[in-house]
Design a protein that fits this description.
The protein is 34% helix and 30% strand. By secondary structure, the chain is an alpha+beta fold. The protein has one domain: Alpha-Beta Plaits, CATH 3.30.70.100. The relative contact order is 0.31.
Length: 97
């Protein structure tokens, strides 16, 4: 059996749009947690950088993460985030050390 895939994503948004971003991310988390291959998925807001949100994810495989990126709920989240983003979303698959 292969190891699971851990991922973090950094989502920089306009702090004035925090409520809309939180609502959109809450929907994304709920839908994602029900996906095949999702072992864990949570979203947080940085305590030191208001408006910067982080997702912490664990996937069974790269294929499951790839499938996640094509779901309707990820497309909806990017629509909600679109006007709130103040930079690029940085997605970081992690390698253990």
């Amino acid at each position: 059996m292969t190891d699971s895939l851990h991922v973090v994503a950094q989502i920089p948004t306009n702090p004035e749009m925090r409520d809309a971003v939180r609502a959109g991310l809450a929907e994304l988390v709920s839908a994602t947690q029900n996906e095949e291959g999702c072992l864990a998925y949570a979203a947080y807001e940085s305590a030191v950088a208001p408006g910067v949100f982080i997702t912490v994810e664990e996937w069974r495989s790269q294929a499951d993460l790839d499938a996640h990126m094509t779901t309707p709920h990820i497309a909806k989240a990017f629509e909600v985030l679109g006007s709130a983003l103040v930079g690029e979303v940085a997605i970081h698959p992690l390698n253990p050390i």
